[in-house]
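hey can u check if this looks right to u? its 223 residues, i copy pasted from the old doc so theres a chance i mangled smth
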Amino acid sequence: MRVGQGGSGPGAHTPDGSAIEMYEQAEANGEDEFIDKAIDPKSSILELGCGTGRITRPLLARGHQVVAVDESAEMIARIPETETIQSTIGELRLDRQFDVVLMMSYLINVADDAERLRLLETCAHHVRPGGSVLIQQQLPTQLAEPVVLEREHSRMEISDVEHLPGNKVAATITHTRNGRTWSQQLLTQNLTEEHLTGQLTEAGLQLAEYLTPDTSWVRARPI
């Protein structure tokens, strides 16, 4: 497991502690509709950190062409509907570019500047001139304090919250679905606009706009 990250519960886990079985049960929660409205019809999309295809499949259904990337062979084995590539994001270097590079799930909030820069350099390498890089970032309120969220068949608990220097936060997230429980330990970093724009520039990108009023979704473009 990576430093500051780990997972427990039934089934296999990825290097960052993500439980494959849990993510396989997860469904899109309107993200595909949001992304579809933010990009052109029938866009070519490079989805970084696709997991088990929670968003991949709805985007395919909306007519987009998606190449799905994840470091876990077990994750991408769940997405036979499209081209998949097993690779870490930082090491990925394809000889082609895409209309859209999509990096969701707060991957940008990795608590290491050097690794974050590698992620952004991968985005910059693969987006075509005039294309878009769509990034979902964590908000400071999301892991601010312990909380329990319950739905009809699921429960999520955020616990062990520790605020660390440099806008970093450590926490444990525990999911219970259909009587099965998984826990994941996280270490993340909340980004100021100055920090984010500085690293975007270093990677060859520029902040074009915030797609949501709360700044959780960012559009960047090649410089």
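Helices lie at 20-25, 31-38, 56-61, 73-76, 113-126, 193-203.
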